[in-house]
Amino acid sequence: MLYKSDGLEVQANFSALLRERGKVVPGSLREVHNVFTNNGRSWLANLVAWSSLADPDVAKTHQRVRWLGLGTGVTFLESPEVGRLETPVKVNSSDYLAAIHTTSFPPAIAPGARFTREYGTGEISIATNPVVPVSEAGLFVDTLGLYGTADSVFPGLDTLLDPTSETNSPVAYARFEPITKTQDFVLEVRWDFRF
Amino acid sequence: MFNDQGHYREGNFTATLRKDGLEVDRRHGHNVVTDYAREEWLPKLLTWASLGNGITDDVPNSDARLRWIGVGEGWRPEIPAVKFLEAPLAVDYGPPVVYLGEIAPGSMTNPVVTSIRINHSFLGSDLAAMGDVDITEFGLYAGYLDTVFYPEWETGTRMDPESAINPVVAYKSFIDPLTVGVVNTLDVQWEIRF
Predict the structure, then answer these.
(1) Of B23, B40, B80, B191, whose CB has the highest number of CB atoms within 10 Å?
(2) Mutation choice for B interface testing from A2, A4, A5, A35 by most B CBs within 10 A
């Protein structure tokens, strides 16, 4: 049996709500536990280690929590094996991933970190898809610039992930009762990691 | 973790004392990941302080990764509140005197994709340069060496190998000491699972 403090387990919690002109839309709050995926555990195991030591040291990966993705899938289970969103939806006309707006370390969730993203009225519910029953979410790690030259997969974009791809693999995944995003609402998403 | 024969063993820390390559003593068991690791190290390591926009780059909150192992002859209970070794020993009497053993290149591996394993060998000629030492505690440390790129905002999180007092991210102790002389080597294998 492993001791509780023997390793590092990340517990993730997800919440989302709609606002209309700043006021919370009644019944729109979703608060769920979610799953830290095997992809996420693998990422952490590499993030904490150096590939080689010198001056400068060389990291195994520079990826850190950077993107949020939403979807309308309803059949994926919250399983560590989840490797992508079931039915991703576009944030805008081209991208499925949206950059995190803020990262904070509130005492209320210490030890941990909180990632937030506010989707504007014209995001997710875009002109070609104005009513979106959001029911799944993923958190993604990536790096832009800094060490991008060596890491870069997409020249010009300089990140490892392609935000325009539907098949990026999340480090955390949440499923919840659908919350209908329209162009009348702002959608606030909050994701907490606790260690 | 799995031993050399592929058999699963409980625990994630092993220290093996050798003489002429042969095992003469061993300690094996669990360890504790400290509050320092959970509260300060990991939240900062896995987050960006700011995101780049194509003109500016992403900037991490911290780039401190597992880099050193330290030894001591004190003992503290294996509880998350442990922050420092009780009685750190020098791993190199120099000059300068150094208290943290730098993990050798290529010694950090992934036995499975969701864990990281660190191997490190201490030479008895270093540890016992001033006489035999009784090792009863180990610490794992995170930091970096980059004298070119790192900005001032991370001042204070970089470990000082020449200081006996550095915060540990994981700690291991035992009552029965491993006595290291100049003829010995001390092999440490440490695995952190996620």
Answers:
(1) B191
(2) A5
Q: Shortest CA distance to A67 belongs to which of B47, B64, B59?
A: B47
∠ CA B156-B161-B162, rounded to 5°: 105
Is any Cβ of chain A less than 8 angstroms from the Cβ of B192?
yes
H-assigned helices in chain B = 35-36, 42-45, 124-127
Could you tell me the mean pLDDT of each successive run of 10 residues in chain A, 195 residues long? 61 93 96 91 90 80 93 93 96 94 91 95 94 97 64 50 91 96 97 91
Strand partners, B170: B33, B140
What is the spatial distance between Cα A102 and Cα A137, in angstroms, rounded to a whole number?
17
| Coil, helix or strand at residue B104 | coil
- Is-contact A58 B106, C-beta < 8 A? no
Write the pLDDT tens digit of every residue in A83-92.
999 999 999 9
Distance from CA of A9 to the nearest CA of B (A): 5
pTM listed for this prediction: 0.87
- In whole angstroms, what is the distance from residue B65 CA to residue B190 CA? 15
Q: Which of B45, B53, B9 is nearest to B27 (CA)?
A: B9
CB contact under 8 A, B110 and A46: yes
Considering only alpha carbons, which residue of chain A is nearest residue B192? A7
B115 SS3 class: strand
Q: A172 - beta bridge partners?
A: A36, A139
Residue A106 φ/ψ, nearest 5 degrees: -65, 140
Complex ipTM, two decimals? 0.86
- Of B178, B164, B173, B14, the residue nearest B92 (C-alpha): B164
Q: Is B111 on the interface with A (CB under 8 A)?
A: no
